[in-house]
Amino acid sequence: MPATDLSLRLRNRLEAIGLDAAGSLFRSMDVDRASALGGRLWRRFAPLSRRHARALVNLQIAFPELDAYARRAIALDMWENLGRVLAESFHMPAIAADASRIDTTRGAILETVRASGRGAVLASLHTGNWELGAQVAMRFGLSPAGVYQTVRNPHVEALFRTLRAAWYPAGLHARQRDGAQTAMKLIGIVRRGGTIAIMGDLRDAAGVEVPFFGRPTWATPFPAMVARALDVPLVAARMIRTGGVRFDIDAVEVAVPRSDDREGDIRAGTAALQATYEGWIREYPGQWFWIHRKWAPPGDRAR
Questions:
Q1: Please, are residues 46 and 53 in contact by the beta-carbon 8 Å criterion?
Q2: By mean pLDDT, which of 40-44, 96-100, 227-231 is the weakest?
Q3: How far apart are CA 12 and CA 174, in angstroms?
Q4: Do 294 and 203 touch, CB atoms closer than 8 A?
Q5: DSSP of 108-161, one letter per residue?
Q6: Residue 298 phi, psi (nearest 5)
Q7: How far apart are CA 91 and CA 117, in angstroms?
Q8: Cβ–Cβ contacts within 10 Å for residue 29, how many?
Q9: 117 φψ region: left (φ > 0), alpha (ψ -120 to 50), beta (else)
C-alpha cells in the first residue's frame, strides 16, 4: 500500500475516533451545555486549522471595507457557530421537539406550500443551524426529501448520514452519487406534489455563473430549473441563531422567470436565489460557513 494511502486511512480513522469521542461527550450533557462547550472549543482551536486562512480570504473578498480585526471577529463567530452546530447534531430530536426553541413566525410560506399540494423546492444555506430546516418544515406538515454534500472521510460520512437520515422522511440523497439518477428521483418527488430540500449556497463547478458579493461564482441551477420546469415555488429558507440553542426560521419565495428563454430563466432564478443568500449573510455574517470555496474557478474541484 502506498504511504500516501496509508496516511490518508490513518488520518480518516483518527478523525472518526475524535468525532465518536465528541459525540459521546456531547450526548452526556444537556443540549444547552453541549452547544456552549462545542462553540467554545471550536472558537479556541479551529482557527489553528488551514481552513481559517481560507475563511479570512473569503471575508476579505466579501467585505473589503472591513479591517482585518473585524474580519477576524466574524471568522471567530463562524467557528463558534460551527462548533455549536456539531454539538447540537447529537441532540436534534430534543431541539426539534421543543417548540420554545424555534420561532416559526416568518416561515408561514411553508404552510402555504403544504396547503397548495403542488410541491416545492426549498433551497437553504449553511447559516445558523441549517440541519434543523427539514425538521421545521415537518412542523408545517411537509415531508421533505434531502440532498446533501458528502464528506471525504468514509467513517465520518457514515455517521453524518445516520444522523441525518431520520430528518428527511422522503429520503436522503448524496449530491455526488449517481447524479442524473438522483436528479430524476428528486424531480419525480416534486412532480408528485412533494418537497425537496437543497443546500443552494455551495459552489457548483458544473453550475451557472452568477454574481455573489460583487464577484462571479458558480452556483447550482438545479433549484431554479426544477421550480421552472414544474411550475412550483422556489423557497429560500434560513435558520437564524438568536442566542444559544434558540432560532428563528425565515422563508421567502424567490421569483423564477418563465419565458421562452429557458436557460436565461434558470440563470435569472439562480442569480435571484444567490442574491437572497447574500443579503441574509450580510445581516448575520458570523453565522455563515465562510470556509466554502465559493469563489474558486469552475475548473478547481477541490473543496
A1: no
A2: 96-100
A3: 20
A4: yes
A5: HHHHHHHHH-S-EEEEE-SBSSGGGHHHHHHHTT---EEEE---S-HHHHHHHH
A6: -60, -25
A7: 31
A8: 16
A9: left
Q: Residue 28 gets which letter from DSSP? A: T
| Euclidean distance between CA atoms 247 and 124, whole angstroms | 15
Count of Cβ atoms closer than 10 Å to residue 78 Cβ: 26
Separation between Cα atoms, residue 48 and residue 120, nearest integer Å: 41
C-alpha cell at 70: 473585524
Q: Are 149 and 179 in contact (CB under 8 A)?
A: no
Could you tell me if 74 and 59 are in contact, meaning their C-beta atoms sit under 8 angstroms apart?
A: yes
Q: What is the C-alpha separation between 194 and 30, in angstroms, rounded?
A: 35
pLDDT above 60: residue 276: yes
Identify the burial level of 156 via C-beta atoms within 10 angstroms of its C-beta, where 0-12 means exposed, 13-18 middle and 19 or more buried: middle
Residue 33 to residues 25, 27, 222, 246, Cα–Cα distance (Å): 11, 10, 38, 13
Q: 48-62, 68-82, 173-187: which has the minimum mean pLDDT?
A: 173-187
**Mean pLDDT to the nearest integer, 150-172:** 75
Cell triple for 40 = 467554545
The model's pTM? 0.91
CA 286/CA 221 separation, integer angstroms:
26
pLDDT tens figures, 165-220: 777 877 887 776 556 788 888 999 999 999 999 999 999 988 999 999 999 999 99
For the residues 155-163, what does the mean pLDDT come to?
Answer: 74
Overall average pLDDT of the 225-236 stretch? 97
CA distances from 62 to 91, 111, 122, 127, 140 (A): 33, 34, 25, 16, 34
Cβ-in-10-Å burial (0-12, 13-18, 19+) of 38 comes to buried
